[in-house]
Design brief:
317 residues; Nucleotidyltransferase, domain 5; 3 domains; five-stranded mixed sheet; 5 strands
Length: 317
């Protein structure tokens, strides 16, 4: 069957070929008469000389040569290596002696998810979720970060010189509250992670989200000591927030704020060598503003966190 844009049917092709082959029409004259290109006219004339009437029908588009199918035992070995060792196509290719692209195709054919989408401990696909509206769930966690001594730490002075005053510098406790739906983040640098400190941070974080039109409904934390005390639960009750806790030994449940802390380290804390802790702290507010209002977030299709919040104030330009 001819496609809908074909200028000639098999009968029209035969008439064109007969004019050229049997009646002696010039190629370009016949092409102009049948309103086709001269290359098309030449193709059907050649088909007619070779196959006659049978050559006027469309041929199959199947390629003349097809790639060989990978033997089933090799495919089984690829699947076994992925499931047992959880390694990528390049390392599987070295062990099986086939191309990495072939390994990738086999993994796709067996519907095995990429390693980035699987739990490294169990190999099962990671169940991703996202709350429907801002404030429905806020993730809270603390990231410990070594403070930088005056004059710089080991990243500036080298390990030998930086080790001498490392102990005196102390540790910074970065408390973060991150909205599950929008990824909007609020972070404070506090001196410890005691129950009273965590409760005070929650009050200020709730007020910060409220000024942006986000009422906090639930808060999710790990099972750290400060989050299991009465101080935390009483603060949540007073603020009208429902507390939630992750399963023990399952930090993936609070993975959004864990991933934020990784971004924080890469793009702010370790982004360049700082000569003092004050210098690094001074750069934090600008970085957090950029994260919330300007940085495209791959977890939300390249949008900024602030763009997913309705009626958000202080939309920076």
């Amino acid at each position: 069957m001819c496609h809908r844009n074909a200028p000639l049917t098999p009968t029209g092709r035969l008439r064109l070929a007969v004019c050229i082959v049997e009646d002696g029409w010039p190629l370009r004259r016949a092409a102009e008469r049948f309103q086709v290109s001269h290359t098309t006219a030449q193709r059907w004339a050649g088909r007619y000389r070779k196959s006659g009437w049978a050559g006027m029908y469309d041929r199959s588009s199947r390629p003349l040569h097809q790639r060989h199918k990978t033997p089933a035992p090799v495919e089984d070995e690829v699947v076994r290596l992925r499931q047992e060792h959880r390694i990528g196509p390049q390392r599987i290719a070295v062990r099986t002696g086939i191309a990495a692209s072939t390994v990738h195709r086999i993994l796709q054919a067996h519907r095995l998810p990429p390693l980035s989408c699987t739990d490294r401990a169990t190999g099962r696909p990671v169940r991703r979720y996202e709350r429907a509206r801002p404030g429905e769930l806020v993730h809270v966690d603390v990231k410990k970060l070594g403070r930088i001594p005056d004059g710089g730490g080991h990243r500036t002075l080298g390990r030998a010189a930086g080790r001498k005053n490392r102990q005196a510098a102390g540790v910074a406790y970065l408390h973060t509250a991150l909205d599950d739906h929008s990824r909007l983040a609020y972070t404070e640098d506090l001196p410890d992670e005691k129950a009273a400190t965590c409760a005070g941070f929650l009050e200020r974080a709730t007020a910060w989200f409220a000024t942006r039109g986000i009422p906090v409904e639930r808060v999710l934390t790990d099972n750290a000591w400060a989050y299991t005390k009465n101080t935390w639960e009483q603060t949540c009750r007073r603020l009208g927030i429902s507390p939630r806790w992750t399963r023990p030994w399952r930090p993936q449940t609070n993975g959004k704020v864990e991933r934020f802390h990784r971004t924080l380290l890469e793009e702010w804390a370790y982004q360049r060598p700082y000569t003092s802790d004050a210098e690094r702290r001074a750069a934090f507010d600008d970085w957090l503003d950029w994260y919330n209002y300007h940085r495209p977030h791959t977890g939300i299709d390249g949008h900024t966190p602030a763009s997913r919040v309705t009626n958000v104030s202080e939309q920076h330009t």
